[in-house]
Amino acid sequence: MNYCAECGFKIEGEFKFCPNCGSQINSGIIPRSSKTKNSEDIIICKNCGEENPVENSDCFSCGIPLKGNKMKKNDLTRSEAKGNDSNQSSRKNISDNQNRIKEEKVLDNKKILIISSAIVIIFIIALVLSGVFDSGITQNITQVENQSSESGVNLANLEEINELEKKVNANPDDLESALHLAHLLQDSGMFERAISNYKKYLVKHPENADARVDMAICFYNMGDNTTAISEMEAALKYQPKHQIAHLNLGIVNLTAKNIEASKEWFRKTAELDPNSEAGKRAQELLTSH
After folding, report:
1. What is the DSSP letter of 2?
2. Rounded to an integer, what distance in angstroms lies between the CA atom of residue 204 and that of residue 195?
3. Which long-range contacts (CB under 8 A, 24 or more apart) does 193-201 make?
4. What's the pLDDT tens digit per position in 208-254?
5. Domains of the chain
6. SS (H, E, C) 148-200
């Protein structure tokens, strides 16, 4: 019978490696006679369970003090030896389980990250394919184009407006230039400046119904329906059969929710000339409202 030189495990039979610790034993086996002088008396180490000769003060396997733990060799049962083996095996199993749990957590985190990334990518692709981004861009471009077309502002008008303003400022009596400037400002959506120039012109030419109706349209575009109606009615005092003034009075009253008044103005417009563009438009509005 021999013992492992590394862990002191009792080896029964022929082994090249220790069954307990796995160390090579072909050159490290210690004969039982070299461990104990008395085959009956030994000291069992409480720490590692090693059998030590009675003269040993420290365990030759783990090195802790033995403190005289003397007992008979025959008192050591196989259950105690198995207990030592099972403790080492239990510690090894716990360590393996901890390592496996850590690996599983790492894998779970990676899976979650991969799945989340895949969902985000699929969502973006779906948006692109559905044309959401394209429609938003197109909508913005359309809005800008509509605003530009409604305001009527362009570089040519701005250049002419600047030249006319210089001309009118240099010669305030040039009322025809002031009227032309008022028309350009109205077409460019500069309604307040247009009204100022219309007023300059109408002081000298109050009978010009066209100019007064155009000024009334500026008030209407600024949301002042009351003044717009007043100026259009004033234009009709100078030119009672002004069909455009009648039509615009119907539209302004309709916007102001004066439904009966708007109907009356549309009827009068159609009566003046049902075959003109203004007359046809009045009939359409009268029918629809």
Report:
1. E
2. 15
3. 194/218, 195/219, 197/168, 200/168, 200/172, 200/175, 201/175
4. 999 999 999 999 999 999 999 999 999 999 999 999 999 999 999 99
5. 2-81 (no CATH), 153-288 (1.25.40.10)
6. HHHHCCCHHHHHHHHHHHHHHHHCCCCHHHHHHHHHHHHHCCCHHHHHHHHHH
Please state, in angstroms and rounded to a whole number, the distance separating the CA atoms of residues 279 and 272.
7
Of the candidates 165, 239, 154, 230, the one whose C-alpha atom is nearest the C-alpha of residue 189 is 154
Tokens of 214: 């155009």
Query: pTM value?
Result: 0.48
How far apart CA 28 and CA 6 sit, in angstroms, is 8
Give the amino acid at 234: A
Q: Which amino acid is at 258?
A: N
- How far is it, in rounded angstroms, from Cα 241 to Cα 247? 11
Q: Yes or no: say if 253 and 262 are a contact pair by the CB < 8 Å rule.
A: yes
